[in-house]
């Protein structure tokens, strides 16, 4: 009887709250659980992810950069090749960290651990779960962005105080990818389907103008690249890294704000459809 009464109490609480079954304003419960799980099991994976962009920067920026020399950056400013690719690699790192946390982790929790079903049997709503998982991805993005920006400073690639804004800008990039990643993962049922995520991310990385300017591509390919979210992140961080701003800066920020809004809506609706029938 006590369990039945408790369940009835939770149901009544859900009905009475302002946002109904959608949101209980308890995102911190999801975040707290995720941090405890990370501390006990997967912290080595998170730390190892930091070194990937650093190795790219050293091998390409320092190694190949000695051959390339200087290149033209945003606003026509001449910068070293290492300074050219460093903010782009930071954008790639923000994308990779957010996508990993919001796809493979979510896929396991949703289809094998059945974690979200258990969460939504409590007073938590789908928006609490969605935002909690996204916040966890952002915390990982914050770790990567802060560490990589520090590496850039050590290598002498930061020449303006504006560069500190790369950290919050990286979080915006991570937010965009994490919000969409979780929603898309909710459609996946098998590991073979999850391979499509890597199939999309690889060309996005290769054709995001990370290592060479957009102008080297034919015009039709340029339009396709400019429609991809990673290109906007790469260009945004490049502009911030040298303090060269233009109307395009607002376009890049606006792109991610729209991406965040649509991604959160998609994820929330999917969780509600799947688990609140």
Task: Describe the overall structure.
The radius of gyration is 21 Å and the shape is elongated. It is mainly alpha-helical. It has 11 helices and 2 strands, in the order H-H-E-E-H-H-H-H-H-H-H-H-H. Residues 1-12 and 14-19 have low confidence and may be disordered. It has one domain (23-275). The longest helix is centred in the N-terminal third of the chain and has 42 residues, at 27-68. Strands 1-2 form a two-stranded antiparallel sheet. A hairpin with a 5-residue loop joins strand 1 and strand 2.
| Low-confidence segments | 1-12, 14-19
Q: What's the pLDDT, averaged over the residues?
A: 83
How many independent structural domains?
Answer: 1
How much β-strand is present in the residues? under 5%
Q: Alpha-carbon distance between the termini?
A: 25 Å
CA radius of gyration is 21 Å
From the structure above, extract its key features.
11 helices, single chain, mainly alpha, 277 residues, two-stranded antiparallel ribbon
Sequence-ordered SSE layout with sheet pairings:
Elements: H1 2-16, H2 27-68, E1 70-72, E2 78-80, H3 81-102, H4 104-111, H5 115-120, H6 126-154, H7 166-185, H8 191-206, H9 219-227, H10 229-242, H11 247-275
Antiparallel strand pairs: 1-2
Helix pairs in contact: 2-3, 2-6, 3-4, 3-6, 3-7, 3-10, 6-7, 6-11, 7-10, 7-11, 10-11
